[in-house]
Amino acid sequence: MAASTTETPVGRVKPSRLIDLEQHKDERGCISVAESQWTAGFPIRRVYFLHDLTDGTSRGGHAHRELEQLFIAAHGGFTIHVDDGHQRAEYRLDTPGTALYVGPMVWRDLRDFTPGGVCLVLASHHYDEADYYREYEDFLRDSRRHA
Ligand code: TYD
Hints:
The termini are far apart. The protein has helices at 36-40, 136-145, and strands spanning 3-4, 17-20, 22-26, 29-33, 46-50, 59-64, 69-75, 78-83, 88-93, 98-102, 107-111, 118-123, 132-133.
């Protein structure tokens, strides 16, 4: 069961939110579906996944200027901390049937992966280092300027 610590929306440009994926279950198992138009709300141009993660590691530690993403716990679970420079929240993702939408100008940290956990990410744009904020102070300055 995916869960959030707060109802307060985090993301001034577009709020972060949990999305139930379309699922098709039968006696063989389950298919969970994410589509650009119906699920993500953005064109899915890139797919990547985090796997073979070192015990106790954290990922993320950045924000994006334009990028929109869906995060899915394809296997196991992890916690995403989101911060828009004003509000913070954390989401525990631990079911493949739920995605977390994270939009532009949201700092994110991914932590507390279960052993063997796999984080699937669907992204609106191709990889572009210029879209990243790598320094929290730079992100905070710009997020507060846009407020
Ligand atoms: P980064 O986005 O910082 O990873 P995470 O959010 O999981 O901590 O990326 C780590 C490295 O991988 C960095 O050198 C950039 C590279 N990378 C790509 O080349 N293409 C990609 O699509 C992604 C997501 C990362």
